[in-house]
Amino acid sequence: MANWVSIVIAVAALGVTFWQVSVARRHNKLSVLPMIVHHNKKNITNQGTTFSYVIKNVGIGPALITDRYFEIQSNRFIPNETGHLIKELCDKLIGRSHEYHVLSSGMFGAKAKIPAGAEFTLAEILFPRIVREDQVQIIEALFEKAAFVIKYESIYGEQFSYHTDE
Fold it and tell me: Domain 34-163 adopts which CATH fold?
């Protein structure tokens, strides 16, 4: 009888050990989970309106980028090889209907790592003649045709996708 009790205790201890390992592994994955978000800022002055488009990793682990691109009305935007991605995107969305100036723009690489808490400004665009709220709404409607898509993964290889229009 004592042998059976020892076996039951050993099997139970083994089961609890496996359970603890699975809980610890799940905790480890959650403790390095990235989470990409975005926010848009606008600043209306007498000189015009500036729009800023910012991506941020609010997770507690790094986001390992596997791909990133813009879409216009759900179709991937393929830029020319000019090296001015944001300008080309604005030309496609706005055309010559409104004067604008790209004050700053940047793009992280397709294999970049965005650390937890890091913020990245994709673009700052000035519309010098846009000073009224109704004009701002027209520009916002033009930009709503575009979305920025980021495909990324955690350091454990879990894959995520973020679309700024969702």
Answer: Immunoglobulin-like (2.60.40)
Check residue 13 and report its DSSP letter.
H
- State the average pLDDT over residues 138-158: 93
Going by pLDDT thresholds of 50, 70 and 90, the confidence category of residue 80 is: confident
pLDDT band at 10 (very low <50, low <70, confident <90, very high): low
Assess contact for 149 and 74: CB atoms under 8 A: no
The overall average pLDDT reported for the chain is 87
Partners of 43 in beta bridges: 50
CA 92 – CA 50 distance, rounded (Å):
19
Residue 128 backbone dihedrals phi, psi, to 5 degrees: -65, -25
Burial state string for 4-43 with b = 16 or more CB within 10 A and e = fewer than 16 = eeeeeeeeeeeeeeeeeeeeeeeeeeeeebbbbebeeeee
Q: What is the pLDDT of residue 27?
A: 58
In sequence order, the 6+-apart residues with CB closer than 8 A to the CB of 94 are: 100, 139, 142
* Amino acid 81: pLDDT: 75
Amino acid of residue 163: H
Judged on CB neighbours under 10 Å (0-12, 13-18, 19+), 127 is buried
